[in-house]
Each structure stands twice: as C-alpha cells, then as structure tokens.
Amino acid sequence: MRTGHTPRIRRAVGLVLVVAVLAQALWAPAPVLAASAAELTQDGNRVLTKLYAKVPIAKELAAKASGILVFPGIIKAGFLVGGLFGEGVLFKAGKAVAYYNTVAGSYGFQAGIQKYGYAMFFMNPGALQYLDKSDGWEVGTGPSLVILDQGMAKGFSTSTLRDDIYAFIFNQQGLMGGIGLQATKITRISK
Known about the structure:
By secondary structure, the protein is α+β, with helices and mostly antiparallel strands. It has one domain (7-189). Helix content is 34%, strand content 43%. It has helices at residues 7-26, 30-33, 37-54, 56-64, 125-133, 150-154, and strands at 67-92, 95-122, 137-138, 145-148, 165-178, 181-189. A hairpin with a 2-residue loop joins strand 1 and strand 2 (95-122).
C-alpha cells in the first residue's frame, strides 16, 4: 500500500501555492503594481471605447453622467480568504481628473483567480461629490448603485434613470468559484 501524497492532496497543495503567489502579487508594494497616470488614462479610454461598442446604452449613460470612474483591470484571487486590487481613472467631460484604487477582502467558500474591469457612471453631481468627499468610499454605502450586465442593459432606457450610479463589469477572464462576503473600498490616490 502506497502512503505518499494522493492526487487530491497534491492538487490542494498546488492550489494553495498558486493562491499564495497571487496574494503576494496583490499585496505587494504599490509601486510594483502601479500604472502611471498616462497609462491609466489610456487604458480607461480604451476600455470605454470597447464598452460603448458592445453596450450602446453605456454610451447614452456617458452622455448624461456627471463623471465616469473606470477600473480597466482588477485582479481578484482567493482560497477561502481572498482579495482584489485595481487602479482606475475618473473622467469628467471626457478628461481624466483623478485616480483611484479599489481594494477588497473577502472570506467564505471561494477559490480561484479572475481578472476583470468595471466602469461606474455617476449620474448626478451629488453622487460624484460623495466620491470626492469621502475618505475611501465603501461600495454599498452612500449613493445607490445598480450593476448592469449586457443582458440587463438591452432592456434598459436612459429615460427612466432613477439611481445615482450605474456600473458595467467587463473583460472577465479566469475562474472564481463560490460565494463570499465582500467589502470593496474605493480610495483616491495621487499619480
């Protein structure tokens, strides 16, 4: 009878090692992960152009929005305990005016790694002021937020806008399975 590692244990150990390496990358010092202001602005414009082409209602929202906060690339990883990190740019009237990061921790039944981005359309000056004045905005507090996917967006009309912020998630890659409790915080950064 063989007493070595079973395939199941080897897979679990391998997954833990992958998550540990990814966690190290996520919580590495900011300069290692940080993009320049010019890179963030360019990436933000690029993903918005793609979003507008795929989801026409996003372009209509942009025309009415007080500001658009775009996170072109967010990395999320976890195995029971997880986290995410990304940097973004705030556009007002088509011009980059500020930069932000988003950070979250989560716990629960979860495993995997995923990369994605999102754009938040601030539909009134009050919602945008809340972002500017808060010392780190925790999503789920403050202004009302509605997340739209491509399917929901097809039946959506800008003539019935009632919420403060609309968000689109895009470019999802990788696999993140499970459920978890998450608190995402968005904080202004200097670039």
